[in-house]
Design goal:
The chain is built from no helices and eleven strands. Strands 2, 4, 5, 6, 9, 10 and 11 form a seven-stranded mixed β-sheet that branches. A four-stranded antiparallel β-sheet has the order 1-3-8-7, with no helix packed on it. The N and C termini lie far apart (about 40 Å). By secondary structure, the protein is mostly beta strands.
């Protein structure tokens, strides 16, 4: 059973930075996309950033200019560098790896890591 192991969450002050890391517990083949999502209490889970196996990145408007995603689809690792953090960024952050093989798709999810930003 493949697991995604996340690390790097924590509590910081407004304007500080955090670096979230995610690694697959074993080799994942046919990775199509890797990303980070977040969910704040009372809200739906939302996309923060994703990166394709080809290296194309996409960001939520709230993340543009502050967050940077990087990943290695061969190793199954994805990192989210978050700068200039704001209280609105407070949420549980989840790593996601999407796999596509022929017509089958499968999503792997991490257990979530808490990010808390105080004013």
């Amino acid at each position: 059973q493949v697991r995604l192991v996340e690390s790097g969450g924590g509590s910081v002050q407004f304007g500080e930075s955090l670096r979230l890391s995610c690694a697959a517990s074993e080799k994942i083949r046919y990775i199509k996309v890797m990303g980070w999502y977040r969910q704040a209490p009372g809200n739906q889970r939302e996309l923060v950033a994703l990166i394709t196996s080809g290296g194309s990145a996409k960001y939520a408007d709230s993340a543009k200019g502050r967050f940077t995603i990087s990943g290695d689809s061969d190793r199954g690792t994805v990192v989210l560098q978050m700068n200039s953090l704001e209280p609105e960024d407070t949420a549980t952050y989840y790593c996601n790896i999407g796999v596509t093989y022929l017509h089958d798709e499968h999503d792997y999810w991490g257990q979530g890591t808490q990010v808390t930003v105080s004013a």
